[in-house]
Amino acid sequence: MNKIPNRQAICEVLMEKAKEDKDIVVLCSDSRGSASLAPFANEYPKQFVEVGIAEQNLVSIAAGLAKCGKKPFAASPACFLSTRSYEQAKVDCAYSNTNVTLIGISGGISYGALGMSHHSAQDIAAMSAIPNMRVYLPSDRFQTAKLIEALLKDEKPAYIRVGRNPVEDVYTEESCPFEMDKATAITEGTDAAIIACGEMVGPAVKAAELLKAEGINAAVVDMYCVKPLDKEAIVKAAGNARLVVTAEEHAPFGGLGSMVSQVVARECPRKVVNLALPDAPVITGTSREVFDYYGLNADGIAKTIKENL
Amino acid sequence: MQNLKALSYDLRKNVIDMIVEGKGGHIGGDMSVMDILVELYFEQMNISPENMDDPDRDRFVMSKGHSVEALYAVLAAKGFFPIEQVIKEFSKFGSKFIGHPNNKLPGIEMNSGSLGHGLPVCVGMALAGKMDERDYRVYTVMGDGELAEGSVWEGVMAAHQYKLDNLCAVVDRNRLQISGCTEDVMAHDSQEERWSSFGWHVISINGNDYKELKAAFDEAKTVKGAPTVIIANTVKGCGSSIMENKAGWHHKVPNAEEYAQIMKDLEAGKEAALHE
Q1: Could you tell me if residue A167 is inside a domain?
Q2: Which residue among A42, A93, B107, B120 is the one 20 to 30 A from A260 at the CA level?
Q3: Tally of CB atoms within 10 A around B255
Q4: What integer pLDDT is reported at residue B247 of this predicted model?
């Protein structure tokens, strides 16, 4: 079982790149520990900015740094970053078109037992609705590393959400196909297409394995790039299948499921079932317990497909 | 040497024409902030159409973005775009000259409009200057009503924490906001004590007086280890007796009679400035 959370993978890439690139700046809002960015702060104190518990300031300062040639990565719990500093993300990053990467850590329901104040089940909807803001939910540590490397090559704003806990590897160090803003087709299948993002990709792959044993072929698409959404990959997978199931750690509105449904309805109409968190404060528990309760696991995805085929 | 006070009256006239043509705009604050902008752009900052790609240029963010008409007039006078174009197109369908600063236009660094963003953004700009050991300075102008935004004070704390002596904030203290007197809406007295208690160097001046403006900005440049705030006590609607100190002129569009009177007052102001 992998013990490296995606947030740590981000830190490792940034530390490696910062050796050569003095314009990389990491900003935290009293969150360097929870963001796994303390090693960066210790190694590169001149490229690290602590703003204290002030998420609005975090994002605006990052935008100001970017405007003067820096490459800021601003990390804070996704719950605060995507709502408390929403307007700064909208105006100072997206509208002013500054090269800021916002890293929402402990996203979704990572802080399971801490309550709705600490859950970010709305961040995909919120961030995706902002023109010029890109939204990424990488599925494992290898893909996370590739995403950060890709983001260092452009100068546009982006929001990344990663979870708190280590997730099982979807890919391997040797084999992690990655093309920026193109979804990864993990398996092919003609019965159902599972389109998932973030921590739901692992369970989607397992669900496809469970179904295969029962003679049902499911395609799995890792839609880490929620915005810009890879519509071509959706049409390709959905067009070959009788049923589309989406899986995401997000509220049932405005997330991956809503976006995939829009594309399928227009381009290749067929039944789409959205698996997501409820439109309610989620039940108390660890991530795993909460996912299991709402059927956001391999068994739940496989069951949904069998019931709807 | 250019007579900045006289220039400011011409630029105020440009603003009035913009607002009448565009049928909207924040006229009162444009008039109060004009002298601050003229002093900054014509005396203090090394910003020009020729040096906008120079990493050593000074940086300016118009945090009180609703006074964009005053900024347009000043930027036009600096040669960033023709004033005739601004007056003709301001707020019209499809225009680039919208009601708040937009960095698709030359001379504008950051988009603003929502209050409480400019100072924190400038903290980032000033930090970048320190990191790169550049000696450019960073300026922002805020409204006094804007100081009720909590994000301003997050930036105030950070600027002190990082000893940003390359940062200078100006508060256009005209004491009026949409709903009336700032002190009735959300009391601000004493601004000097508030900023000082946050570790800032504070200079309080008459913000419509060029001698005091110049002295304040010059003093700010000599301060080491702390950011400076200039509390610029101004007159909302400055330049015309019918607008001065009247909250109703926050975003009123003058009618024909008022237009004639305002232009007459501004011309008289210019004449007086030329003969001072």
Answers
A1: no
A2: A93
A3: 10
A4: 87
Mean pLDDT score of chain B: 96
Supply the pLDDT for residue B78: 98
Which residues of B are less than 8 Å from A51 in CB distance?
A: 154, 158
pLDDT at B2 over 90: no
Q: Which residues of A touch B110 (CB under 8 A)?
A: 63-64, 67, 92, 96
Q: Do B118 and B152 meet the contact criterion of CB atoms below 8 Å apart? A: no
**Can you tell me the distance from the alpha carbon of B191 to that of A207, in angstroms, rounded to the nearest whole number?**
62
Mutate to test the interface with B, among A23, A51, A71 (most CBs of B within 10 A): A51
Pick B4-274's CATH classification: 3.40.50.970, 1.20.1250.20, 3.40.228.10, 3.90.230.10. Answer: 3.40.50.970
Instruction: DSSP for B231-259, please give it.
Output: EEE--TTTT-TTTTT-GGGSSPPP-HHHH
| pLDDT tens per residue across span B81-101 | 999 999 999 999 999 999 999
Interface test with B, best of A56, A60, A88, A97 (most B CBs within 10 A): A60
Q: For residues A225 and A230, give the distance between their C-alpha atoms in angstroms, rounded to a whole number.
A: 7
Judge whether A171 lies within some domain.
no
Six-digit token string for B26: 């924040």
Kindly report whether the peptide bond that precedes residue A85 is cis, defined as omega within 30 degrees of 0.
no
Task: Give chain A's radius of gyration (CA, Å).
Answer: 19
CA distance A235 to A217: 17
Place of tokens 């740094």: A65
ipTM: 0.97
The residue behind tokens 């790609």 is: B53
Domain shared by A195 and A136, yes or no: no
Cα dihedral value A234, A236, A237, A241, nearest 10: 120
The percentage of chain B sitting over the pLDDT mark of 90, rounded to a whole number, equals: 95
What distance, in Å, lies between the first and last C-alpha atoms of chain B? 14
- pLDDT band, residue A115 (cuts 50/70/90): very high
The b/e string for A219-255 (b: 16+ C-beta within 10 A; e otherwise) is: bbbbbbbbbebbbebbebbbebbebbbbbbbbbbebb
* Nearest beta carbon to residue A68 from set B129, B154, B162: B129
Question: Do B120 and A70 lie within an 8 Å CB cutoff?
Answer: no
What's the structural domain count of chain A? 2
A198 with A156, same domain? no
Q: Kindly list the domain boundaries of chain B, sorted by start residue.
A: 4-274
How far is Cα A77 from Cα A102, in angstroms, rounded to an integer? 10
What is the CATH classification number for the domain harbouring A46? 3.40.50.970
Using the beta-carbon criterion (under 8 Å), do B121 and A49 form an inter-chain contact? no
Segments of chain A assigned E as strands:
24-28, 48-50, 71-77, 101-105, 134-136, 158-161, 184-187, 192-196, 218-222, 225-227, 243-247, 271-275
Name the residue among B123, B45, B48 with its Cα closest to residue B79. Answer: B48
